[in-house]
User: Fold these one by one.
Assistant:
Number 1:
Amino acid sequence: MKSDVKQLNHISFIMDGNGRWAKKRFLPRSMGHSEGVAKAKEVILHIKKLGIRYVSLYTFSKENWKRAQDEVSFLMGLILKHLREDFNFYVENKIGIKHIGDRSGLSDDILKAIDKVEADTKDFTDITVLLVFNYSGKYDIAQAYNRMAAEGLKDITEDKISDYLLTAGYPDPDLIIRTSNEFRISNYFLYQAAYSEFIIIDKLWPDLQMKDIDGALDIYFKRDRRFGGVKDE
Ligand code: IPE
Ligand code: IPE
Ligand code: MG
């Protein structure tokens, strides 16, 4: 779906810097990830308060499997714990949740927890969290093409590709915020970010404050999104 020029329907976060946050404190990287989850919950509630309809969180990329086995295992355990133990966080706050990513390669426990939280929050439509987990932008485009090929589709249009991406039915991100002062997309929403605004914040993810998000929104609303056109006089 196309983005709206004046509105902000979908805000997205590349939550980067958990490891550095821990390292600065001489703590194991895992502690940074635990802090990262707490920060993500704070951010979700803040976005809900702002009345933004969709928030996506880049939680684990397909390239993150390259990390040390103990870090990967910790992250898998952390997501499972979050989905199981923080389940009430989503239900009590009436927050819908939807997994965006490759289901293959994820454990049955994680898949079951995802299915449960998705089903139990499906009627909460004020805000939906897109949990971008075991995802990469190139993977997403490839799986879309594979499904279109399997269905024998011809004359594939740009909109058709959007319909087969894992984000089908959700608006493209209007604004993507990345923390930790890293100026790259790291195989995130490659197709969906065609006209997203980018804001890079020079703070590690666990150090992010809600006023940093408010500041980013001020910048976003002052920007002139032209989508290739010419600024209105
Ligand atoms: C982001 O923090 C979380 C994940 C990618 C899972 P990092 O773990 O990338 O933290 P840094 O970039 O090493 O500091
Ligand atoms: C991007 O962060 C992925 C997530 C935040 C989940 P990375 O830390 O994996 O990105 P690179 O390796 O610095 O590009
Ligand atoms: Mg990183």
Number 2:
Amino acid sequence: MAGNITFSMIKPYAVKDNHIGPILSMINEAGFKISALIMTVITQQQAEQFYGVHRSKPFFNDLVEFITSGPVVAMVLEKPNAVEDFRKLIGATDPQKAEEGTIRKKYARSLQANAVHGSDSDENAVIECDFFFSSKDRF
Ligand code: ATP
Ligand code: MG
């Protein structure tokens, strides 16, 4: 399984801006199978744990506040080489540096509100998918 899954989340402003449909479409068109999906509001505790690696960064508190500010769409995606291929599909963290045609280039509002999250390693993909979904909610 490792290597074939990644975790993604459509972040609050992209949900508010009505970009769920087009983003899911891009994900499917890029060959990913959506094997779990939920629309939910993340609690502060979940956000602090999810972004724990950034705890010491100056933007941490703002990031937690932002990611808990409204519903997100969390999902498990499947495809060979999922982590790397999904990072290519979403583009650079800063949408101004993201390539044309990437999800962040098209739908991000800013560096913080950069439309989508994508796991950064196979190891973190498994941790993040398990964080949001039990096995009975994965198909
Ligand atoms: P993500 O983990 O959300 O997929 P990423 O892996 O491209 O994004 P990270 O370095 O993990 O980037 O940063 C996590 C998130 O923190 C970014 O997506 C962005 O929302 C926010 N962030 C990163 N750097 C900054 C910054 N300098 N100022 C404000 N927010 C930032
Ligand atoms: Mg990251």
Number 3:
Amino acid sequence: MFTTETRIGVCGAGAMGAGIAQVASRAGHKVIVLDRDDDALTSARAAVEKGAGALLKRGKINEEEAQAIAGRMQWSLHVADMAQCGLVIEAIVENMDVKTSLFKALEQVTGDNTVLATNTSSLSVTSLASGLERPAHFLGLHFFNPAPIMKLVEVISGAETDAGIASGALKLMQDWGKVAVAARDVPGFIVNRVARPYYGEGWRAFEDGAADAATIDFLYRDLAGFRMGPLELGDLIGHDINTAAAKSIFEAYEGRTRFTPSLAQRKLVAAGHLGRKSGRGVYDYSEGGERSAPLVSKPATNSNIGKIFLGAKAPAMKTVLENAGFAYEVQQDVPAGFAKLENTIVGFTDGRSSGALARELNNPVALIDWMRDPASTSALAFSASCDEARQSGMQLAAVCGMNTIELKDRPGLVVFRTLCQLANCAADAIGDQVTDADSVDRAMMNGVNYPFGPMAWAREFGFNAVVHALDAIADETNDMMYRPSEVLRNLTRSAL
Ligand code: NAI
């Protein structure tokens, strides 16, 4: 359907349009970029030249290719110039009426076989197509910023999109070197919907006083390998943009799903602390402003640590102890999944808080937050049911040669609760037939750089254990938003 001979039109010469045009030209297409503002075209031309220069510098392309990227591009202020395009990708202002009138004008000048696409992040593809003469030739191609670098493109079919056109566009995006993922037209598509709990849970941990902001952000990086914690990421995106996105998704789903926006983040916006762009957000970016360090401490080494007894079915604790080279004994009266150090039951959180488990077992309990790999994690983050358990948590960290972070006790702690809720949200998207499990994972890894996909994580951790954890968090918080998705519950019965 599309070949390198297909002429590509890009409407809007802003950050996204310039980036998409560069990607299309690099793939060998002739590209024409339209804007209503001449200055925008001039800046976009400079941006594309700079982008090609950067590729040349990094050895990704040679001099000839760098020149060809610029040479294949044309710039225009007139819609009529898009007449010869086989595909037009729109990346203008995020406004339904302005976009619709541009698409109507494009339909008048382009041929019957031309495919029109929108790069919208938040508008409905189906609604944008509704006033058009050829809605079957219309779809969403959602690139991520910066388009030449971010691999993901969500290929969104509206209610009327022709299936052959959607699969042709998917193939074209792959030819452009992108990770193309098909999605149904729902608010937030895949990434902006499934990513909500990352921010939501970060803020909720902050509101609960689980730890201070710098420590919360550190946990996501150190324990799980995310590039940025949710609070610092909000500072980068801008809390005004981030809260608006949270609010619009929450309203679009009318509270049905798990997208409750954070009141603390809203308060930050009301105070004008929008993030890096305003000089202050969660952190202070003003000149001389200092960013507080995470509250990580080094436990005193205690040479009198007694024996550690391991219960049955405790592979994660076993890995931690073996990684530290600490000898343990298996003992059947230690609860399954946990270990015992002195008088304290220690182990990874399974969704319950230390306090809840201590009451259940009538024993001091220290629980550790999830970690991807004890060998590459620097701190053991734990909560304790009492002071005695706290001492044991410190001792365990000393045994493991790790620093400690003491968290306020809460069900599922911080990172584990977030991962469970991300999997829950990903499963909801699968249940709503937005996409499949593999595509959700590829979308999150390539659209927002997650270190692993939420569904792959849940599968590896065990769907059963994730469902139990979510139920435990819902029981203790008394918050319905944690109840497991029907899809997750079904997956406990049949492997995906
Ligand atoms: P931008 O504000 O940088 O650029 C928009 C450009 O469109 C401007 O140069 C403006 O002059 C031009 N324009 C506006 N109305 C026009 C019209 N009627 N005809 C021709 N040109 C017109 O915006 P940005 O950030 O590039 O976003 C563009 C679109 O991409 C929006 O729909 C946005 O939701 C979507 N998007 C943005 C992402 C981002 O991170 N910025 C990520 C993914 C999608």
Number 4:
Amino acid sequence: MSELGLVVARYRRHSLIEDDDGNRIVCQFHGRALNPVVGDQVQWQSEPGGSGTITEVLPRESTLTRIDNRGNPEIVAANLSQLVVVLATGPAPDWFLLDRYLGAAALAGLKSVIVFNKLDDNDSPPDTLAGYRDLTDGICLTSAHQKLGLTELAACMDAERSAMIGQSGVGKSSLINALLGDKRQAVDELPDKGGHGRHTTTTSVLYGLPGGGELIDSPGVRDYAPYIADPREVERGFKEFGQFSTKCRFDDCRHLAEPECAVKAAVASGEIAERRYESFKILLELTESLRKKRR
Ligand code: GDP
Ligand code: ZN
């Protein structure tokens, strides 16, 4: 008899699932084609000895898809509702990367929150951040070290299934530890008995947050390079372009060298930030060159 379960951790060849009663079972996969990722709803069957086998992955409502080393798309998490993008005073914010993440969130139908971390005593956020007020679902100012802004951050996450992303060194681990307390350790150490890796680099984990909501922590998400298949999709990732792009002379305007482009006019008049337009062009180029590579 098969039952429903939620994938709460993914190892190389096994998943840890949670059933409706909160029991956790280490499962293997029935067949090589199955690739259950964290956040997946699955059908599974119990095996003698207390383990299980995943027989089916149910249709996904959303996915986080990145480009792997060979330039191919790879799904790293499923059924999430929000991206939490972390920036900090150091390493210096990479605003293009932020635009890329926000674009990917929009295209995947996810909400997005920006966290600006390491705002310790006397620090103030950079002016550029203010330009993002209308482009995301929330901005939180935090210091993981001084435990500032964590209540606000928890409130932004309490009704969502979030994934936390951002450059290495901005404080994601510190924030996750501050949000979870000792809960994090507990899951990392669970399925040691099968010998499939305690806290290996391939481990992705879904945590329940103490204040509500869920958080996906995954190395595949941490160095996430979002995948956009179609260059025509790129502009949908730039929310503020929408009201202008409908007024371009050509329906298929790419907003590059075309005459009577309302997007470029909006950049010239300051209604669209120059920096955002630059990000758009870089992302468009990147998407086009990846598409050529795949041909
Ligand atoms: P991750 O790579 O994004 O997971 O970042 P880590 O959580 O490993 O943090 C990187 C470094 O930044 C560590 O040395 C942390 O101690 C430090 N750090 C994290 N949060 C804060 C903060 O709020 N203030 C300051 N000053 N340093 C922080
Ligand atoms: Zn245009």
